[in-house]
Amino acid sequence: xxxxxLLLIALLLPLAGAVLISLxxxxxxxxxxxxxxxxxxLFAVICRLYQLPGEAATLVMATPVEGLEIAFALNRFGVMxxxxxxxxxxxxxxxxxxxxxxxxxxNQTRFYILFAVSIACVMAIAFAENLLTLFLxxxxxxxxxxxxxxxxxxPTARAGARKYLLILMGxxxxxxxxxxxxxxxxxxxxxxxxxxxxxxxxxxxFIAPLLLIFLLGISKAGIMPLHRWLPSAMVAPTPVSALLHxxxxxxxxxxxVLKVVLFIFGPDVIAQSVNTEYLLLxxxxxxxxxxLVAMTRDNLKERLAYSTISQLSYIVxxxxxxxxxxxxxxxxxxxxxxxxxITLFFAAGAILVAAHKTKVSQFDGLASKMPITFxxxxxxxxxxxxIPLLGxxxxxxxxxxxxxxxxxxxxxxxxxxxxxxxxxxxxxWYLLTIPVxxxxxxxxxxxxxxxxxxxxxxxxxxxxxxxxxxxFFQPDLFLELAQSIVGGGxx
Length: 491
Prior knowledge:
Layout: H1 3-23, H2 28-51, E1 58-65, E2 68-73, H3 76-102, H4 108-126, H5 131-149, H6 155-187, H7 207-217, H8 229-232, H9 238-247, H10 249-265, H11 267-272, H12 281-296, H13 300-321, H14 324-355, H15 371-385, H16 392-404, H17 410-440, H18 455-473, H19 476-486
């Protein structure tokens, strides 16, 4: 089968799955089987695209204005993002089968339909040939996930969903769209290009302001102060939190930041422009402030939300350092963070379903009743921290090495390294103390009848936590993709 045909299948298969899920709504077992099968088929298609030896494929769907197309293209960065999302769709669906039933969630069919639609948006973002196409589906992803955030239907859920929609849509309209218009006026095109499209088309003095507008507009990347949508969205069920934090939404944000840095501006343009290095202060502040806030949160999902905000800024930081080592680290961290963070959210949901507990202070001794859950949590936490023998170590290694190789002011290079080291210490405090207390403190009498979560939840947790271990010993899949993307591969 040709690359173009496979690309079209990757774009349409999740939508076909959404239709079939709606048609099987009256038969839950069949509905969930359809979701798992669709996710597995999509993963197989993406694996086949990964195996293609550099074949070019472009699909033009529409040309609303001459020179501006809704188009998709096969590229290595898109394949990497699609591999992460499609593989995690499988385990999230498996997890949802146990969680949604055990927690007696309503509107389960709507959840599976909108999840499939969200994955379709992710595929469109991953393979977008130009910035206009990416922007359109970036916005559709926001709208499509809004009902998932409001899934519970409570006043709190609706309020959280409104804040989610207001911040994401508002920042896109106020900043992202104007940045795209300015880019088109300056460059005459929005198509992604390996060396960027602004080289020679914009005065160096205006590069930093335009890049700042892009960063503010791409608020799915969780940059402070436009981060509040993420904690607000924690009112959603745990499988939705997994979608937001690991599979689709925040990853679409940092993916877009990297695409803009690499293929709209180009690393050389940013490095040679005036004052762009001071933009690093934004993700640096976000990393530390979000970590400090996470330490104060007793609610586990809120703590994990602020952890995500901090970890996303690692990726933005690596992108803005614009040396090859840091860019590889940023790209690699998209994958390593995804597998670790989804493990943590699965564990949080399992604790809620099995023990009906949401606060970290309630977890003392609970590992004696839920050993698999807290073992998986410990693995995910240590991977995010960057402890050796887990995949997260590699992305942290490249980011720290990139900070050491930073070509800007010496004081800023030192500040970058200190930020990464201090953040790691804070990660240890607010993440690793959770499984330590669960394993080594005495169990409260009120938790004596607790058992593990349903088996689909456990299986879904074990798979990404095992991946965290696997990617330490075999990081080549994502490492080679990251190096080819940064070092001269396709945009």
